[in-house]
Design a protein that fits this description.
heterodimer; A: alpha+beta; Heat Shock Protein 90; six-stranded antiparallel beta sheet; five-stranded mixed beta sheet; 13 helices; 13 strands; B: alpha/beta; Rossmann fold; Arc Repressor Mutant, subunit A; 2 domains; 9 helices; 5 strands
């Protein structure tokens, strides 16, 4: 995760550099030089000269009127000499000014290039009209390119085949839309594969329709991200296994019911045979029931297996009400043992959401156990689980308990890891719940009830079902 | 006298397939069985006069087996209960046994264990019913006594002589002797020792 946070400022630097460099490409640079010469100082000098000439003409007229032709000639000669001198001086001054500006510009190019190199950011540009790209040395290093110029196809060539078209497409799009684009591409070399992040900017175009951009090697960042995702998966799985531990007795009960039915049926059958009381219709019914209960036991085991399996995220269309029903079946006996009455008031219609059924069950299990744990002190209690539709449109799930409520100082940090008010709690239940909700693009929040106890809310985006 | 009825096994489990299987097993062993999916149905249909025992699942939805047991034990004629449980929760079993459960069997239960428990329970129920009938009979006899005769009986069982009884109650000894004769006759006993036993049993039953 640290890698991810570090990554953000670097990439924003890259963005800023990308826009600065729109002016600092070879074409851009000549344009900058021109603009130095044709800028404000030159216009100022011109207007000063015009004013001077007008003043001189006025003065000459006055001299001619007052002192006659010879004085006028002298004055003109003096003026001409003076003007020549002034003009020479101005020209020299201008040339110096230009040189200074060029130097500053060149230095800032050097500074920025150096900064980009230090940050490991490659800079590049592309001229659509000529289909020509250029790139600095860092850029060449990152992509493993031998030459610093070529066509867009040459630029994309080192990328993995799947990513080449994606990249060229985005570059062209950025040029056309005069907008910015970003993409992450894979690049495979003998030494291994790496991830590159491209910033593409068509927003600051020049006369030649320049697209400029930066590129960074984000392999390390990417690996950290993948590692973090894997860790989160493992943690989610482990806490789920922990939850199942809490459910142990109840799950055993789920299995024992069909096993009880099977055993009693089989032993009844055995007695019928021993006593020669062979009612074929009854025997058929018993055998059919045995088979049915066996299937039921297998389904319980399958359910358990899926909860225990460290599965990946499998998104599918689900009815939130089904998730509530399935989860309640699972906790049913545990809650009876804890003397907690669980009731449910679910929305009558369907509440279709995209989600992973196992993770959503885990989320609900977490919330139910949390609620039940909050009521251990006062000898049983009540949990109400409701579902309905709220604005968004979202499917809304609320788990209300009659427990001790949430302490004000814990409220703010409720979903942070290792915050637990239980003596045996690790404090991972709610952070994991939050992670599950976020990965479903949903929201989770909690509040204390006006009376006693607390309510946890979850909102998940509803999806449109095809009729 | 209530006519002797065939004992019934009342099975209560909110799982239909378990319920059917248990009924089959008990029927195959020759027991007359009635099944109930809900504890409330069982309570409303319950006739304490019918001899027999109950086989009840502990973990039921609407009312746990323990609560059902409490309700059943409230009546004058408690019914022997065998609990079946799917989870081995020690707390619940202790609670059940304390409240007077006869047996506590883990699911899946073998036919041997269940049938033995059921036979034991029926036996207990038979004995309890016989005892209750006897006590009822004694109570009926005791109720035929007059107030004065009851006072005399209380003195007799404390080992007092006619002379002492007459003095205490302010009557003549002869009258006391007549009362004693009536008490022995109405209570259908021949010895003071037998009368003492009856008095003890009535006292015990009264305490319950």
């Amino acid at each position: 995760m640290r890698g991810l946070e570090k990554g953000r400022p670097v990439s924003s630097t890259a963005n800023a550099l990308t826009s600065v460099f729109a002016h600092l490409t070879p074409e851009g640079l000549t344009f900058s030089q021109r603009s130095v010469g044709s800028g404000l100082p030159r216009r100022l000098v011109a207007s000063l000269l015009v004013t001077a000439v007008l003043l001189c003409l006025f003065a000459l007229g006055e001299i001619f009127k007052a002192q006659g032709l010879s004085a006028y000639r002298d004055a003109v000669a003096i003026l001409l000499t003076g003007s020549a001198a002034v003009m020479t001086l101005s020209a020299a001054q201008l040339a110096h000014l230009n040189r200074e500006r060029e130097k500053i510009a060149r230095e800032s190019v050097q500074h920025i290039t150096q900064a980009a190199r230090c940050a490991g950011i490659g800079l590049w540009g592309w001229t659509p009209a000529k289909d020509r790209f250029w790139g600095n040395s860092t850029f060449q290093e990152i992509l493993g390119l031998q030459k610093s110029e070529g066509t867009l196809e040459d630029l994309a060539a080192p990328l993995d085949p799947d990513d080449r078209n994606k990249f060229s497409g985005l570059v062209k799009e950025a040029a056309q839309e005069r907008d910015e684009r970003q993409c992450e591409c894979r690049l495979t070399r003998e030494s291994g594969s790496s991830w590159l992040k491209f910033n593409i900017s068509g927003a600051t175009q020049t006369a030649e329709d320049q697209v400029s951009g930066s590129v960074m090697d984000i392999t390390a960042q990417h690996e950290t991200q993948v590692e973090a995702t894997n860790l989160r998966h493992s943690l989610t799985h482990l806490t789920r296994v922990g939850l199942l531990g809490q459910l142990g007795g109840a799950l055993a009960h789920e299995l024992k019911q069909p096993l009880t039915a099977i055993l009693s049926n089989a032993q009844a059958l055995q007695r019928m045979v021993e006593h020669d009381r062979l009612d074929m219709a009854e025997i058929r019914a018993v055998i059919s029931d045995i088979i049915q209960d066996d299937t039921r036991a297998a389904a319980v085991i399958q359910h358990l297996r899926s909860l225990l399996k460290p599965g990946e995220f499998h998104s599918q269309v689900l009815d939130l009400n089904d998730v509530v029903r399935d989860t309640l079946e699972l906790v049913h006996n545990e809650m009876i043992t804890r003397r907690v009455a669980v009731s449910r008031a679910t929305d009558e219609g369907r509440l279709p959401v995209m989600g992973d059924p196992i993770q959503l069950q885990q989320l609900l299990l977490n919330l139910i156990f949390n609620a039940a744990d909050a009521m251990t002190g006062n000898k049983g209690g009540m949990i109400l689980i409701t579902t309905d539709q709220i604005e968004g449109p979202c499917a809304h799930l609320a788990v209300t308990d009659t427990g001790q409520g949430i302490e004000p100082d814990v409220m703010d940090r409720l979903f942070e890891p290792f915050i637990s008010t239980k003596t045996q709690g690790v404090g991972l239940g709610l952070p994991i719940s939050r992670a599950i909700v976020l990965s479903h693009k949903g929201r989770i929040w909690a509040e204390n009830n006006p009376g006693r106890g607390a309510t946890f809310h979850v909102a998940l985006p509803l999806i449109q079902e095809k009729p | 006298m209530i006519p002797a009825q065939a004992p019934q096994i009342f099975v209560v489990d909110d799982d239909p397939s378990v319920l059917t299987a248990l009924k089959r097993l008990l029927n195959s062993a020759g027991f007359s069985t009635r099944t109930f999916l809900s504890p409330l149905d069982f309570l409303s249909a319950h006739d304490p006069d019918v001899p027999g025992c109950a086989v009840i699942d502990v973990g039921m939805d609407k009312m746990s087996g323990i609560v059902l047991q409490e309700r059943l034990m409230l009546g004058a004629q408690p019914r022997p209960i065998i609990f079946l449980t799917g989870c081995d929760d020690v707390r619940v079993s202790v609670q059940a046994m304390k409240a007077g459960a006869l047996d506590y069997l883990s699911k899946p239960v073998s036919d041997q264990a269940l049938l033995t428990a059921v036979e034991h329970a029926l036996d207990e129920d038979r004995k309890a019913r016989a005892t209750r009938q006897e006590v009822d009979e004694l109570r009926r006899r005791h109720e035929t006594l007059t107030q004065r005769e009851r006072e005399v009986m209380a003195q007799i069982v404390r080992g007092r002589l006619n002379k002492q009884i007459a003095f205490d109650l302010g009557i003549v000894e002869k009258t006391a002797k007549v009362h004693r004769g009536r008490v022995m006759e109405k209570m259908q006993v021949r010895s003071v020792a037998a009368l003492v036993r009856i008095a003890e049993r009535l006292e015990q039953a009264g305490e319950k």
